[in-house]
Amino acid sequence: MAQMQYDARDVAPGLWIWRVEYPDWHPDAGWEPTVTSICVSSGGQVAVIDAMAPPGEAAEIWGRLDANPPTLAVVLKPDHVRDIDVFVERYGVRAFGPSLFWRQNIPKTELEPIEPGSRLPGGLEALYDGRGRNETPLWLPEQRTLVFADALTERGGRLLVWATPWHEARVLPALRALLDLPFERVIISHGEPVHDRAAYERALELPPWGG
Q1: Which phi-psi region, left, alpha or beta, contains residue 77 (left: φ > 0; alpha: ψ -120 to 50)?
Q2: Residue 209 DSSP one-character state
Q3: What is the torsional sign of CA 66, 101, 17, 145?
Q4: Does pTM surpass 0.90?
Q5: CA 180 – CA 198 distance, rounded (Å)
Q6: Which of 25, 112, 129, 156 has the smallest count of CB within 10 Å of its CB?
Q7: Rounded CA gap, 143 and 159, in Å?
């Protein structure tokens, strides 16, 4: 069996990401096998967001998590449950996320529900993306960063909005409203994870990704 690939990188003070291969990935998934997880220190809290457990041999990543243990874990979207139960069991974190899940992907942990406008420990704020997929992007005020699950993706070096039937009517107005926030970067799950504000602004003018 091939060894799972993984890596970690710093994004900003108090903000870092790690990337691992999604274990159930298949070629028809519509996205690359490597997905992004986020760790942020904010307001005296440490949050992991859409966290996928690194493989056991990823000592650097586990060591970094253990050295500054998470205090909360957040699921941004019903199909991004990933390994939240692992983080609850290992660190005793408070867990937050959607109030509804897909029947084949339900966490054992009972999550505290969040919705657009919810304020989480550490000053993190759940946002509205207009896509109707029960996704709540997060605003990280200390790092001036927006974190998305699937509202945006990277394809061919470009940040793009993931298509929906109501892209023009609902999604673009919601994503444009986020420009009122003083963010400097966005982090996404699929594709190259970190993009600057200019890339986000361009994404709102480009055709959505429909692949």
Answers
A1: beta
A2: B
A3: negative
A4: yes
A5: 14
A6: 156
A7: 20
What pLDDT is recorded for position 111? Answer: 96
Start-to-end CA span in the chain (Å): 30
Q: How far, in Å, CA of 182 to CA of 49, rounded?
A: 21
What pLDDT, on a 0 to 100 scale, did the predictor assign at position 28?
A: 61
Element containing residue 85 per DSSP (H, E): helix 84-91
Q: 69-93 pLDDT, tens per residue?
A: 999 999 999 988 889 999 999 999 9
In the three-class reduction of DSSP (H, G, I as helix; E, B as strand; rest coil), residue 116 is classed as coil
- What is the mean predicted confidence (pLDDT) over 125-144? 95
| Strand stretches in the chain, DSSP E | 6-12, 15-21, 34-42, 45-49, 72-74, 94-97, 112-113, 125-126, 138-140, 145-147, 152-155, 158-161, 185-187, 194-196
Sequence-ordered list of residues with C-beta below 8 angstroms from that of 67, at least 6 positions apart, any chain: none
pLDDT in tens, 5-43: 788 999 999 999 999 886 664 566 565 668 999 999 999
